[in-house]
Specification:
The protein is mainly alpha-helical and 244 residues long. It folds into 2 domains: 72 residues, Alpha-Beta Plaits (2-Layer Sandwich), CATH 3.30.70; 155 residues, no CATH class. It has 9 helices and 6 strands; from the N terminus they run βαββαβαααββαααα. A two-stranded antiparallel ribbon has the order 1-4. A hairpin with a 2-residue loop joins β5 and β6. α3 runs antiparallel to α6, α6 crosses α8 and α8 runs antiparallel to α9. The longest helix is centred in the middle third of the chain and has 38 residues. It starts with 15 loop residues before the first strand and ends with a helix. The N terminus is likely disordered.
């Protein structure tokens, strides 16, 4: 694919338009298109057809007949919805890139906290004994966080505040992303296609769980209480994040 697949021209031709949210990546339209108008995005977490040669489209409408999910439709040149769809493509482009940016920022700040301040302190102080690990006071003591230490010029409090902020923004974007693609998720769930799209479904659930388990302990702490549940959620958050 020699062009960026993010531009609006990859969703329509002068004759047909493609709704990638409805595409189930069966690739039947590719085999039926004799003019090589259609290609595909085949990433583990993102799969759908893509129009790569809009100028080669002759309007044979074979793609409409091939797609049983209604991802293709005729272009109504008198309908102003086309402009809205193009704006929607731009919004998706912005959302996807912001997800990438805040996702990387979440990973970076999480690694700085986990490897720069947390890992190693519990075992070094208690010889690997975790029998009283979930007791709040013991846990706080054995974390051994050095508030004077810096990682890349930032203290623990700076990294912690940054991590919480980017998690919150990432969670908002993730919720909007799922809302914007809800029709796709609904079809996948209703037609039991989760197995075919297990990478997307698994990552969606895991990202939401990581974001939620990262914010809940913060909210518990803000409420003035510190208990075993908060610490347990922090550990779940850390393990899920490292797993992803």
């Amino acid at each position: 694919m020699n062009r960026s697949f993010l531009s609006s021209e990859h969703k329509r031709t002068p004759f047909v338009q493609l709704d990638t949210r409805k595409c189930k990546a069966c690739w039947k339209c590719l085999s039926d298109c004799s003019n090589n108008v259609i290609s595909k995005v085949d990433l583990p977490w993102h799969k759908h057809a893509l129009i790569v040669g809009p100028s080669r489209c002759t309007g044979c409408l074979k793609c409409l007949k091939a797609c049983q999910y209604g991802a293709y439709s005729k272009v109504d040149k008198t309908n102003q919805k086309t402009t809205k769809k193009q704006n929607g493509v731009f919004n998706k482009f912005v959302t996807n890139n912001l997800l990438l940016i805040f996702g990387l920022a979440t990973i970076l700040s999480g690694f700085a906290l986990q490897f720069g301040f947390h890992i190693g302190s519990r075992d070094s102080d208690h010889g690997g004994d975790h029998s009283d690990f979930l007791q709040p006071v013991v846990y706080e003591q054995t974390r051994g966080i050095d508030t004077v230490k810096t990682v890349w010029g930032l203290h623990y409090s700076d990294w912690s505040a940054t991590h919480k902020l980017v998690i919150f923004l990432f969670l908002l974007l993730m919720i909007y992303h799922i809302y914007d693609h809800w029709k796709w998720y609904k079809v996948v769930l209703n037609k039991h296609l989760s197995g075919k799209h297990k990478q997307v479904m698994t990552l969606s659930v895991l990202f939401l769980l990581v974001a939620i388990t990262g914010l809940v302990p913060w909210m518990i702490d803000l409420s003035g209480s510190s208990n075993g549940l908060r610490i347990l959620i922090i550990e779940i958050h850390d393990k899920l994040a490292l797993f992803i």
